[in-house]
Amino acid sequence: MRLPFALVPSLALTLLVAACGPSMEPEPVKTPDQLLAEQEALAEEDERRRAEQSVPVEEEETDAEKKKQFDAQQAELQLKQASRSAETCPSVVTEPGPTGVAKVTLVFGNDGHVKEGTIAPPFADTALGKCVLRALNAVIVPPFVGPEVTKDWEVNLAPKK
How far, CA to CA in Å, does 140 sit from each of 6, 81, 115? Predict the structure, then answer.
């Protein structure tokens, strides 16, 4: 007997499925200790795979954490710019006063603004000292998290030639 050509692929597929079917031998029943041991082994294997796949946590700070810190570079940049303005004070203030290098201490609050500014003698309580403090108290840095930051700064108030 010859089979029609269209039935040959169907018959081949049926034989293949029957040949690859489940085994007829029943799986032995496992004891509770065997089940527990098997589950522990699977858990250990899963943990090992996760450890291999996980990226190690680096101690490097994220950008968000860096933004929360006081930006010393930005403060330096802003203070240099404000110092240029403060150095013009001797030509603006008409009242005679001391010359030289003025030592200024600024305290930055968490909002980035100068919370307190002081200038050391002999410039303290002079019109020139007040002009310098106005220029430096205008400095604003990005807001930050943490304690207030104190910066010491010097401004050259020597007469311009």
Answer: 85, 11, 10
Residue of 85, 78, 87, 92 lying closest to 156 (CA atoms) = 87
pTM assigned to the model:
0.58
| Residues 104-142: tens digit of each pLDDT | 999 999 999 999 999 999 999 999 999 999 999 999 999
Question: Distance between CA 89 and CA 24 in Å, rounded?
Answer: 100
CA distances from 130 to 2, 86, 93, 102 (A): 113, 10, 10, 11
How far is it, in rounded angstroms, from Cα 87 to Cα 153? 13
State in Å, rounded, how far the first CA of the chain is from the last one: 120
Give, in degrees to the nearest 5, the angle at Cα 114 between 142 and 131.
130
